[in-house]
Design goal:
The chain is mainly α. It has 22 helices and 13 strands. 35% of the residues lie in helices and 6% in strands. Helix 16 runs antiparallel to helix 17.
Amino acid sequence: MLSFNFILLGLSLASYTTAVPASYRHRREVPQEHSHEAILIDMRKQLAIANPQNLGDPVFSLLGAAAAAGGLGDTTDVNCLQQAVADQAFTNAKAANDVAGMTSALIFRTLERNSGSVGAASPNCTSVTATNPEIAALAQHQDPAGDGAQAFNKAVVLELAKQIASVGGTPTDALKSGTFAPGTIGDPTAKGNSCDDANDTAGCIETLKLRVDDATEDEINAAVAGVSSSASGNSTASAGSATASAGSNSTSTDTGATGECPGTATVTVTAASETTAAAATTAAAAATTTAAAATSTAAAGDIGDFGSCTVPQIEFGAGFDNRKETSFQPVDQKSYAHTSAQNVDIIMQFMCDTLTNSCAADATAKATCKTATAAADAASKGTGAQADAFNAAFGITTDFASLAVISNTGVTVSPGANPAATSAASPATAAAGAATTTAAAATTTAAAAASTSAAASGSSAIGDFGSCSVPQIEFGAGFDGRKETSFQPVDKASFNHGSAQGIDIITKFICDTLTNSCKADATAKATCQTAITAADGQTAKTGAQADAFNAAFGITTNFAADAVISDQGSTIQAGAAATAGASAATSAAAQATTTAAAAAQTSAAAATTSAAAAAATTAASSSSAASGANLQTFTGSLGGVTPPAVTDTKSGAQPFAVDGNATFSSLQNALVRSCDVQHNKCANAANSSGNKGDLTVTACGDQQTQCNAAAQSSAASARR
């Protein structure tokens, strides 16, 4: 009997599986390497992009050692072949900002490999470390008949869900990695409960309903609760979406399950009231969380015949699938059964694929779906405006743009657009932004939505950042549960990336995102490269690097004053004096660009260009708070650390100043930054004291949550 010791190197997990050539079948579990064929198909697509190690077909890596050798290419360890395939596929998908491709690569890494017999374990890779930490954190499922395997597989799935969430995918897609029910150990037929069909593009484990889920959706949602998500990439298909069901139990292709819906395109939709569930504490989302009676009046001939399915429509809000954050999902789960996703491309691609795979829609309907996708992609990323633009192409007017964007911690990232000027406003109705709206002709409304939902950005000396905010990096301990100090983007909605000790990982990601999804101009991209140079000129792994990067964008911070902490919680290097740290950052920026240095002297970014930030500026400017008064009302002080004061300077584009830190256009963002500064210093104090008693990094994190909630409340009160 096998005993599984969960030695998780950063949560890299050991594992096991089942298959080999025909000559071995008398002494092992029957083949199952094609059981998840949809994922294999995705892997082949990714390897076709780039395959520098000349790896063989991905299926080789799911075979036993003898057969797997045929796919080694330039690698040498058969036990690391599955990891190598997943790692290269992930690298290719990441370069293309393909969230679905990254998700498929993560799932593939955890699929069960064939082993010698029922209950036997497949060795984990120990000789090579994956290039991508997301892949390195994973291992393959093991034959569920083995001793301890089911508990092990559950750990694999929960870790997989975290990694999927970290790249902006749908965490519950982790369940697609599940294997079969346990076979009987010692069974001379070695049959187990598996299947193997290379011709079933959805995966026979799904088609035959043989997949056994290792965890519940509630367990997955709990596991990913603290994981930053919503990557800024463009998804080209939901994971394993070679067909409509694409490896998911929730996406049945049974066309008989829905009633006949002729393409008359008259559909009334009410956005689910649950969209406010997670955002109940935020004033931004409290007022308008439903778009009632949104009716499509487009003629069937204009938008097509959708066969057995309803006219596609997407909704946006918080609370879907028990998420705290805002996300997108199909309105009609009967025609388009898919869970929510923070990246609307995942939902749109699935719906457009379903028109072909199960609805039997005509060519016009499919073309309209592509038009809708293009319109949504032109709208501000991650906002309700994308759902509005998609729906408008089908003659359905909604006003999800007025909803606030909420993070996975329940924090308002950006307020909704002013309903009077929302991107969903239809030229055919003066009632846009009201609860009940009437759709105009599909093509006209789609064009209006696409043209007006783009970020209302103005260019400046540092550039136009398109749909994203001005880049900014913070430095401190406690990010993503780390003991050590690290760097991360401040605005996770625009630049979604976890923390890293090497700032180059963050700066490169931010600058790449300006090209890949923000639609920033050449000046903005050049400023970002200047910022990288400035950061690299500072002492590595210190807050001075973040200060130098930020200064290039005209943002003054003083992270150089923060101590550098090791992963053991020990202080490696004391922080620089506050004035010296600020001076070093400004000096570095001055060397890189005179314009940026001048902007830094004024402590204000020349432009925050996203539509969300513009809305935030409007809300903030209406604050009645007196200039000079401390607007930070939170009084928690673990370790004797209080949040720095926030004042309204009543001047410039970013009037709200955090003492000793940065300036912001939004009061709420300034208050949250004040909470962040307190959290960093609290975590530093906790690490320095050995995380004893009430002063722990966890307690500091809990205090930050309370501080953020107070910030939301204060900002909401100021707006009233």
